[in-house]
Amino acid sequence: MASPASRPLAFDVGVLSPAQLEQLRHFKIQTRIANEKYLRTHKEVELLVAGFFREMFLKRPENILEFAADYFTDPRLPNKIRLQLMKEKKGT
């Protein structure tokens, strides 16, 4: 049996007032906008994720967690991303 701390919390719509729901909606929108701005100004994030998925689909590892740990801790990764960023800047 799962411990109380490991069980997902139930979402109770009636807990928040209409004003709180509006504040929450506004917060979610502002957070999405901020995240989008961040991702647009940090091309390296897109390159990291795209590179990871490309390698994952090419290699199709049995243990995805181990593969992800190895991929993102590869000491050569920062240089690979730097080179890709330079290549993209030259192409534009």
UniProtKB/TrEMBL annotation:
Q: Which domain of life is it from?
A: Eukaryota
Which CDD domains does this entry report, sorted A to Z? Answer: DD_RIIAD1
For this protein, the record's PANTHER family field holds: RIIA DOMAIN-CONTAINING PROTEIN 1
Q: What is this protein called?
A: RIIa domain-containing protein 1
Task: Name its species.
Answer: Echinops telfairi (Lesser hedgehog tenrec)
As recorded in Swiss-Prot or TrEMBL, the protein's gene is named RIIAD1
